[in-house]
Write a structure and sequence with these properties.
The structure holds two protein chains of two kinds. By secondary structure, chain A is mainly alpha-helical. Chain A has a domain at about 30-100: Fumarate reductase/succinate dehydrogenase, transmembrane subunit (3 helical TM bundles of succinate and fumarate reductases). In chain A, about 65% of the residues lie in helices and about 5% in strands. Chain A has helices at about 35-45, 45-65, 65-75, 80-105, 120-140, and strands at about 110, 115. Chain B has helices at about 35-45, 105-115, 135-145, 155-160, 160-165, 170-180, 190-195, 210-215, 220-240; strands at about 5-10, 20-30, 65-70, 70-75, 90, 100, 105. Helices cover about 35% and strands about 15% of the residues of chain B. Chain B starts with a strand and ends in a 6-residue tail after the last helix. Chain B is α+β, with helices and mostly antiparallel strands. In chain B, the strands form two sheets. In chain B, strands 2-1-5-3-4 form a five-stranded mixed β-sheet. Chain B folds into two domains: about 5-105, Beta-grasp domain (Ubiquitin-like (UB roll)), CATH 3.10.20; about 105-240, Fumarate Reductase Iron-sulfur Protein, Chain B, domain 2 (Orthogonal Bundle), CATH 1.10.1060. The chains are: A mainly alpha, B alpha+beta. The interface of A and B includes residues 19, 24, 38, 106 and 108 of A.
Protein backbone atom coordinates (compact mmCIF):
# COMPACT_ATOMS: atom_id res chain seq x y z
CA UNK A 1 0.00 0.00 0.00
CA UNK A 2 1.37 3.41 -0.94
CA UNK A 3 1.87 5.87 1.90
CA UNK A 4 -0.66 8.68 1.81
CA UNK A 5 0.18 12.32 2.58
CA UNK A 6 0.12 12.85 6.32
CA UNK A 7 -0.71 15.95 8.35
CA UNK A 8 2.15 18.08 9.68
CA UNK A 9 4.17 16.26 12.38
CA UNK A 10 2.99 16.73 15.92
CA UNK A 11 5.53 17.15 18.74
CA UNK A 12 7.06 13.82 19.67
CA UNK A 13 7.44 12.77 23.28
CA UNK A 14 8.90 9.47 24.48
CA UNK A 15 5.63 8.48 26.14
CA UNK A 16 3.35 9.54 23.30
CA UNK A 17 5.19 8.45 20.16
CA UNK A 18 3.66 9.36 16.84
CA UNK A 19 2.62 6.10 15.23
CA UNK A 20 2.16 5.85 11.52
CA UNK A 21 -1.04 4.15 10.44
CA UNK A 22 -0.87 2.89 6.87
CA UNK A 23 -4.27 3.52 5.27
CA UNK A 24 -5.96 0.48 3.71
CA UNK A 25 -6.69 1.07 0.04
CA UNK A 26 -10.23 0.54 -1.27
CA UNK A 27 -8.62 -1.73 -3.87
CA UNK A 28 -6.76 -3.88 -1.32
CA UNK A 29 -8.24 -7.00 -2.92
CA UNK A 30 -6.62 -6.22 -6.28
CA UNK A 31 -3.08 -6.16 -4.91
CA UNK A 32 -2.71 -9.87 -4.21
CA UNK A 33 -4.01 -12.89 -6.12
CA UNK A 34 -5.15 -14.67 -2.93
CA UNK A 35 -7.33 -11.73 -1.92
CA UNK A 36 -8.64 -11.38 -5.47
CA UNK A 37 -9.56 -15.09 -5.43
CA UNK A 38 -11.40 -14.54 -2.13
CA UNK A 39 -13.46 -11.69 -3.63
CA UNK A 40 -14.13 -13.87 -6.70
CA UNK A 41 -15.36 -16.62 -4.38
CA UNK A 42 -17.76 -14.17 -2.72
CA UNK A 43 -18.96 -12.66 -6.01
CA UNK A 44 -19.52 -16.04 -7.67
CA UNK A 45 -22.29 -16.64 -5.13
CA UNK A 46 -24.40 -14.67 -7.62
CA UNK A 47 -24.32 -17.83 -9.78
CA UNK A 48 -25.84 -19.81 -6.92
CA UNK A 49 -28.42 -17.06 -6.30
CA UNK A 50 -29.34 -17.11 -10.02
CA UNK A 51 -30.13 -20.85 -9.86
CA UNK A 52 -32.21 -20.34 -6.69
CA UNK A 53 -34.28 -17.61 -8.34
CA UNK A 54 -34.73 -19.70 -11.52
CA UNK A 55 -35.88 -22.69 -9.45
CA UNK A 56 -38.45 -20.50 -7.65
CA UNK A 57 -39.68 -19.16 -11.00
CA UNK A 58 -39.92 -22.73 -12.28
CA UNK A 59 -42.05 -23.75 -9.30
CA UNK A 60 -44.23 -20.66 -9.83
CA UNK A 61 -44.74 -21.54 -13.52
CA UNK A 62 -45.51 -25.14 -12.54
CA UNK A 63 -48.18 -24.00 -10.07
CA UNK A 64 -49.87 -21.91 -12.78
CA UNK A 65 -50.53 -24.91 -15.00
CA UNK A 66 -49.13 -26.74 -18.07
CA UNK A 67 -49.34 -23.73 -20.41
CA UNK A 68 -47.35 -21.45 -18.13
CA UNK A 69 -44.79 -24.20 -17.58
CA UNK A 70 -44.39 -24.73 -21.33
CA UNK A 71 -43.98 -20.99 -21.91
CA UNK A 72 -41.33 -20.91 -19.17
CA UNK A 73 -39.48 -23.81 -20.83
CA UNK A 74 -39.55 -22.05 -24.22
CA UNK A 75 -38.19 -18.89 -22.62
CA UNK A 76 -35.37 -20.84 -20.96
CA UNK A 77 -34.43 -22.36 -24.33
CA UNK A 78 -33.72 -18.90 -25.80
CA UNK A 79 -30.05 -18.07 -26.56
CA UNK A 80 -30.02 -15.36 -23.85
CA UNK A 81 -31.11 -17.73 -21.07
CA UNK A 82 -28.82 -20.52 -22.31
CA UNK A 83 -25.91 -18.06 -22.10
CA UNK A 84 -27.02 -16.94 -18.63
CA UNK A 85 -27.29 -20.55 -17.45
CA UNK A 86 -23.83 -21.46 -18.76
CA UNK A 87 -22.29 -18.39 -17.06
CA UNK A 88 -24.17 -19.10 -13.82
CA UNK A 89 -23.06 -22.74 -13.95
CA UNK A 90 -19.39 -21.74 -14.31
CA UNK A 91 -19.74 -19.28 -11.41
CA UNK A 92 -21.47 -21.88 -9.25
CA UNK A 93 -18.81 -24.52 -10.06
CA UNK A 94 -16.02 -22.13 -9.04
CA UNK A 95 -17.93 -21.17 -5.89
CA UNK A 96 -18.56 -24.79 -4.96
CA UNK A 97 -14.98 -25.95 -5.50
CA UNK A 98 -13.54 -23.07 -3.43
CA UNK A 99 -15.89 -23.86 -0.54
CA UNK A 100 -15.18 -27.57 -0.77
CA UNK A 101 -11.45 -26.89 -0.49
CA UNK A 102 -12.11 -24.83 2.68
CA UNK A 103 -14.40 -27.42 4.24
CA UNK A 104 -11.42 -29.33 5.66
CA UNK A 105 -10.76 -26.39 8.00
CA UNK A 106 -14.36 -25.90 9.09
CA UNK A 107 -15.27 -29.54 9.70
CA UNK A 108 -13.60 -31.58 12.38
CA UNK A 109 -14.52 -35.24 12.13
CA UNK A 110 -13.04 -37.63 14.64
CA UNK A 111 -13.17 -41.37 14.26
CA UNK A 112 -11.93 -43.36 17.24
CA UNK A 113 -10.25 -40.29 18.76
CA UNK A 114 -8.17 -39.39 15.68
CA UNK A 115 -9.03 -36.53 13.36
CA UNK A 116 -9.95 -37.51 9.82
CA UNK A 117 -7.41 -35.91 7.39
CA UNK A 118 -8.64 -32.82 5.55
CA UNK A 119 -8.19 -34.37 2.12
CA UNK A 120 -10.72 -37.09 2.99
CA UNK A 121 -13.26 -34.45 4.07
CA UNK A 122 -12.81 -32.62 0.76
CA UNK A 123 -13.03 -35.92 -1.14
CA UNK A 124 -16.20 -36.77 0.84
CA UNK A 125 -17.80 -33.51 -0.28
CA UNK A 126 -17.01 -34.23 -3.94
CA UNK A 127 -18.27 -37.80 -3.54
CA UNK A 128 -21.56 -36.57 -2.03
CA UNK A 129 -21.87 -34.06 -4.90
CA UNK A 130 -21.35 -36.83 -7.46
CA UNK A 131 -23.94 -39.08 -5.79
CA UNK A 132 -26.56 -36.30 -5.65
CA UNK A 133 -25.82 -35.35 -9.28
CA UNK A 134 -26.11 -39.00 -10.38
CA UNK A 135 -29.48 -39.39 -8.60
CA UNK A 136 -30.79 -36.18 -10.20
CA UNK A 137 -29.49 -37.23 -13.62
CA UNK A 138 -31.22 -40.60 -13.23
CA UNK A 139 -34.53 -38.85 -12.43
CA UNK A 140 -34.27 -36.34 -15.25
CA UNK A 141 -32.81 -38.46 -18.03
CA UNK A 142 -34.53 -41.81 -17.58
CA UNK B 1 33.67 -10.77 -4.78
CA UNK B 2 30.99 -12.69 -2.92
CA UNK B 3 27.43 -12.63 -4.25
CA UNK B 4 25.14 -10.01 -2.73
CA UNK B 5 21.42 -9.27 -2.57
CA UNK B 6 19.59 -5.98 -2.15
CA UNK B 7 17.28 -5.34 0.79
CA UNK B 8 14.63 -2.62 0.59
CA UNK B 9 13.78 -1.87 4.19
CA UNK B 10 11.03 0.40 5.55
CA UNK B 11 12.42 3.34 7.51
CA UNK B 12 10.24 5.56 9.65
CA UNK B 13 11.44 7.94 12.29
CA UNK B 14 8.54 9.43 14.26
CA UNK B 15 10.68 12.46 15.17
CA UNK B 16 11.52 13.38 11.56
CA UNK B 17 9.31 11.64 9.01
CA UNK B 18 5.69 12.25 8.12
CA UNK B 19 5.47 8.88 6.31
CA UNK B 20 7.63 5.76 5.96
CA UNK B 21 10.06 5.39 3.07
CA UNK B 22 12.36 2.64 1.81
CA UNK B 23 16.12 2.44 2.24
CA UNK B 24 18.27 0.08 0.18
CA UNK B 25 21.08 -2.02 1.60
CA UNK B 26 23.38 -4.45 -0.20
CA UNK B 27 24.07 -7.52 1.94
CA UNK B 28 25.97 -10.79 1.30
CA UNK B 29 23.77 -13.55 -0.09
CA UNK B 30 24.75 -16.53 2.02
CA UNK B 31 23.04 -19.86 1.65
CA UNK B 32 22.60 -20.30 5.41
CA UNK B 33 21.31 -16.77 6.06
CA UNK B 34 17.73 -15.95 6.89
CA UNK B 35 16.24 -12.45 6.42
CA UNK B 36 16.86 -11.69 10.10
CA UNK B 37 20.60 -12.43 9.63
CA UNK B 38 20.65 -9.90 6.80
CA UNK B 39 18.92 -7.27 8.99
CA UNK B 40 21.40 -7.93 11.79
CA UNK B 41 24.26 -7.59 9.27
CA UNK B 42 22.89 -4.18 8.27
CA UNK B 43 22.57 -3.11 11.90
CA UNK B 44 26.09 -4.32 12.80
CA UNK B 45 28.00 -3.19 9.71
CA UNK B 46 26.06 -0.56 7.79
CA UNK B 47 23.43 1.30 9.78
CA UNK B 48 23.11 0.99 13.55
CA UNK B 49 19.95 3.09 13.58
CA UNK B 50 17.84 0.41 11.86
CA UNK B 51 15.25 -0.72 14.42
CA UNK B 52 13.52 -4.10 14.54
CA UNK B 53 12.41 -6.70 17.08
CA UNK B 54 13.94 -10.13 17.43
CA UNK B 55 14.92 -12.52 20.16
CA UNK B 56 15.22 -16.30 19.88
CA UNK B 57 16.20 -16.79 16.20
CA UNK B 58 14.52 -20.19 16.22
CA UNK B 59 10.80 -19.62 15.51
CA UNK B 60 9.68 -19.79 19.13
CA UNK B 61 9.45 -16.25 20.52
CA UNK B 62 7.33 -14.76 17.73
CA UNK B 63 9.12 -11.37 17.85
CA UNK B 64 10.61 -11.09 14.37
CA UNK B 65 7.42 -11.15 12.28
CA UNK B 66 7.65 -8.79 9.27
CA UNK B 67 6.33 -8.51 5.74
CA UNK B 68 8.84 -10.08 3.35
CA UNK B 69 7.99 -9.28 -0.27
CA UNK B 70 4.42 -8.63 0.84
CA UNK B 71 3.95 -11.86 2.81
CA UNK B 72 3.83 -12.03 6.62
CA UNK B 73 6.83 -14.13 7.69
CA UNK B 74 8.97 -14.93 10.70
CA UNK B 75 12.23 -13.45 9.43
CA UNK B 76 14.24 -15.99 11.45
CA UNK B 77 12.67 -18.79 9.42
CA UNK B 78 12.72 -17.20 5.96
CA UNK B 79 15.83 -17.89 3.89
CA UNK B 80 17.34 -15.07 1.87
CA UNK B 81 18.28 -17.41 -0.96
CA UNK B 82 14.58 -18.03 -1.62
CA UNK B 83 14.35 -14.43 -2.89
CA UNK B 84 17.52 -14.43 -5.02
CA UNK B 85 18.43 -12.49 -7.11
CA UNK B 86 16.33 -9.96 -5.18
CA UNK B 87 15.58 -7.30 -4.21
CA UNK B 88 13.91 -8.36 -0.97
CA UNK B 89 11.40 -5.91 0.43
CA UNK B 90 11.15 -5.96 4.23
CA UNK B 91 8.29 -4.01 5.80
CA UNK B 92 6.66 -3.87 9.23
CA UNK B 93 3.67 -6.16 9.80
CA UNK B 94 0.69 -4.89 7.81
CA UNK B 95 -2.38 -3.34 9.51
CA UNK B 96 -0.47 -2.44 12.70
CA UNK B 97 0.59 1.15 13.51
CA UNK B 98 4.31 1.65 12.92
CA UNK B 99 6.32 2.85 15.92
CA UNK B 100 9.70 3.05 14.19
CA UNK B 101 11.21 1.36 11.12
CA UNK B 102 10.11 -2.30 11.39
CA UNK B 103 8.65 -2.10 14.90
CA UNK B 104 4.86 -2.13 15.22
CA UNK B 105 2.54 -1.24 18.08
CA UNK B 106 0.84 -4.34 19.52
CA UNK B 107 -1.24 -3.01 22.46
CA UNK B 108 -4.48 -3.52 20.54
CA UNK B 109 -3.64 -7.19 19.97
CA UNK B 110 -2.65 -7.69 23.62
CA UNK B 111 -5.93 -6.15 24.83
CA UNK B 112 -7.91 -8.44 22.53
CA UNK B 113 -5.98 -11.43 23.79
CA UNK B 114 -6.97 -10.69 27.38
CA UNK B 115 -10.59 -10.14 26.35
CA UNK B 116 -11.13 -13.82 25.42
CA UNK B 117 -10.10 -15.03 28.91
CA UNK B 118 -7.15 -17.17 27.83
CA UNK B 119 -6.89 -19.15 31.04
CA UNK B 120 -8.67 -22.12 32.60
CA UNK B 121 -12.02 -20.92 33.96
CA UNK B 122 -13.46 -23.17 36.68
CA UNK B 123 -16.92 -22.96 38.18
CA UNK B 124 -16.25 -25.60 40.81
CA UNK B 125 -12.63 -24.99 41.75
CA UNK B 126 -11.20 -27.56 44.11
CA UNK B 127 -8.57 -26.93 46.79
CA UNK B 128 -4.91 -27.54 45.91
CA UNK B 129 -4.77 -30.39 48.41
CA UNK B 130 -7.06 -32.42 46.15
CA UNK B 131 -4.42 -32.42 43.43
CA UNK B 132 -4.33 -31.45 39.79
CA UNK B 133 -7.04 -31.77 37.13
CA UNK B 134 -6.12 -34.86 35.17
CA UNK B 135 -6.25 -35.09 31.40
CA UNK B 136 -5.78 -38.02 29.02
CA UNK B 137 -3.53 -37.81 25.92
CA UNK B 138 -6.71 -37.98 23.79
CA UNK B 139 -8.18 -34.95 25.60
CA UNK B 140 -4.89 -33.10 25.10
CA UNK B 141 -4.86 -33.94 21.39
CA UNK B 142 -8.24 -32.19 20.90
CA UNK B 143 -6.85 -28.69 21.62
CA UNK B 144 -3.08 -29.14 21.28
CA UNK B 145 -2.93 -27.64 17.79
CA UNK B 146 -4.45 -24.36 19.05
CA UNK B 147 -2.03 -24.19 21.98
CA UNK B 148 0.98 -23.91 19.64
CA UNK B 149 0.40 -20.18 18.96
CA UNK B 150 3.48 -18.01 19.64
CA UNK B 151 1.65 -14.66 19.41
CA UNK B 152 3.68 -13.57 16.39
CA UNK B 153 0.59 -11.79 14.90
CA UNK B 154 1.41 -12.89 11.34
CA UNK B 155 -2.25 -13.97 11.09
CA UNK B 156 -3.40 -10.41 11.83
CA UNK B 157 -1.12 -9.08 9.10
CA UNK B 158 -2.63 -11.63 6.68
CA UNK B 159 -6.24 -10.80 7.60
CA UNK B 160 -7.88 -8.07 5.46
CA UNK B 161 -10.87 -8.06 7.84
CA UNK B 162 -8.61 -6.85 10.66
CA UNK B 163 -7.19 -4.19 8.32
CA UNK B 164 -10.66 -2.93 7.41
CA UNK B 165 -12.28 -3.31 10.84
CA UNK B 166 -9.87 -2.62 13.70
CA UNK B 167 -12.53 -3.75 16.21
CA UNK B 168 -12.36 -7.33 14.88
CA UNK B 169 -10.94 -9.52 17.65
CA UNK B 170 -8.83 -11.36 15.11
CA UNK B 171 -7.60 -14.85 14.27
CA UNK B 172 -5.07 -15.64 17.03
CA UNK B 173 -7.31 -14.44 19.88
CA UNK B 174 -10.26 -16.54 18.63
CA UNK B 175 -8.02 -19.59 18.13
CA UNK B 176 -6.76 -19.12 21.68
CA UNK B 177 -10.33 -18.93 22.99
CA UNK B 178 -11.00 -22.19 21.16
CA UNK B 179 -7.88 -23.70 22.71
CA UNK B 180 -9.40 -23.16 26.19
CA UNK B 181 -12.94 -24.06 25.16
CA UNK B 182 -11.76 -27.45 23.96
CA UNK B 183 -9.67 -28.10 27.05
CA UNK B 184 -11.39 -30.76 29.17
CA UNK B 185 -10.38 -28.89 32.36
CA UNK B 186 -12.06 -25.63 31.33
CA UNK B 187 -15.62 -24.53 32.15
CA UNK B 188 -15.61 -21.01 30.70
CA UNK B 189 -16.95 -21.54 27.18
CA UNK B 190 -20.24 -19.68 27.97
CA UNK B 191 -18.34 -16.61 29.15
CA UNK B 192 -16.17 -16.66 26.02
CA UNK B 193 -19.19 -17.27 23.80
CA UNK B 194 -20.79 -14.05 25.11
CA UNK B 195 -17.70 -12.11 24.02
CA UNK B 196 -17.03 -13.90 20.76
CA UNK B 197 -20.55 -14.26 19.41
CA UNK B 198 -20.70 -10.50 18.89
CA UNK B 199 -20.17 -9.01 15.43
CA UNK B 200 -16.54 -8.05 16.19
CA UNK B 201 -15.93 -11.66 17.22
CA UNK B 202 -16.43 -14.70 15.04
CA UNK B 203 -19.08 -13.16 12.76
CA UNK B 204 -16.65 -10.52 11.54
CA UNK B 205 -14.63 -13.27 9.86
CA UNK B 206 -15.42 -13.81 6.17
CA UNK B 207 -13.18 -16.90 5.91
CA UNK B 208 -10.50 -15.49 3.65
CA UNK B 209 -8.33 -18.28 5.06
CA UNK B 210 -5.01 -16.43 4.76
CA UNK B 211 -4.43 -16.46 8.54
CA UNK B 212 -4.05 -20.23 8.40
CA UNK B 213 -1.61 -20.04 5.49
CA UNK B 214 0.49 -17.39 7.26
CA UNK B 215 0.68 -19.26 10.58
CA UNK B 216 4.21 -20.62 11.11
CA UNK B 217 2.97 -23.08 13.75
CA UNK B 218 0.07 -24.69 11.83
CA UNK B 219 -2.46 -23.43 14.37
CA UNK B 220 -5.23 -23.03 11.74
CA UNK B 221 -7.03 -20.00 13.20
CA UNK B 222 -9.46 -19.92 10.23
CA UNK B 223 -10.58 -23.44 11.14
CA UNK B 224 -10.97 -22.48 14.80
CA UNK B 225 -13.21 -19.55 13.87
CA UNK B 226 -15.45 -21.62 11.57
CA UNK B 227 -15.79 -24.32 14.25
CA UNK B 228 -16.66 -21.58 16.73
CA UNK B 229 -19.34 -20.28 14.37
CA UNK B 230 -20.86 -23.75 14.26
CA UNK B 231 -20.81 -23.98 18.07
CA UNK B 232 -22.41 -20.51 18.36
CA UNK B 233 -25.17 -21.48 15.93
CA UNK B 234 -25.90 -24.71 17.82
CA UNK B 235 -25.94 -22.73 21.04
CA UNK B 236 -28.43 -20.25 19.55
CA UNK B 237 -30.72 -23.07 18.44
CA UNK B 238 -30.55 -24.65 21.88
CA UNK B 239 -31.48 -21.34 23.51
CA UNK B 240 -34.34 -20.96 21.04
CA UNK B 241 -35.73 -24.45 21.65
CA UNK B 242 -35.14 -24.58 25.40
CA UNK B 243 -34.66 -21.02 26.69
CA UNK B 244 -34.50 -22.00 30.34
CA UNK B 245 -32.19 -25.00 30.00
CA UNK B 246 -28.62 -24.49 31.20
CA UNK B 247 -26.27 -23.89 28.30
Amino acid sequence: MRPQPQPAPTPYTPYHPRWYRTPVSTYWWMHRWVYFRFVLRELTSFGVAYFCVMTLLLVRALSKGPQAFEAFEVRLASPFFICMTVIALLLALFHTSTWFSLSAHAMVVRIGGTRVPGILIVAGNYAAWLVVSAILAWFLLR
Amino acid sequence: MAETIQLEVTRYSPEKDSAPSFQKYEVPLRKDWVVLDALNYVKDKQDGSLTFRWSCRMGVCGSCGMMVNGEPKLTCATFLSKYAPGPVRVEPLRYFPIVRDLVVEMSDFMAKFRKVKPWLVRKDDKPLSEGEFLQTPEQLEVYKQYSMCINCTLCYAACPVYGLDPFFIGPAAIALAQRYNMDSRDQGSDERMDILSQHEGIWGCTFVGECTKACPKNVDPAGAIQQYKLAATMNWFKTLLAPKAPR
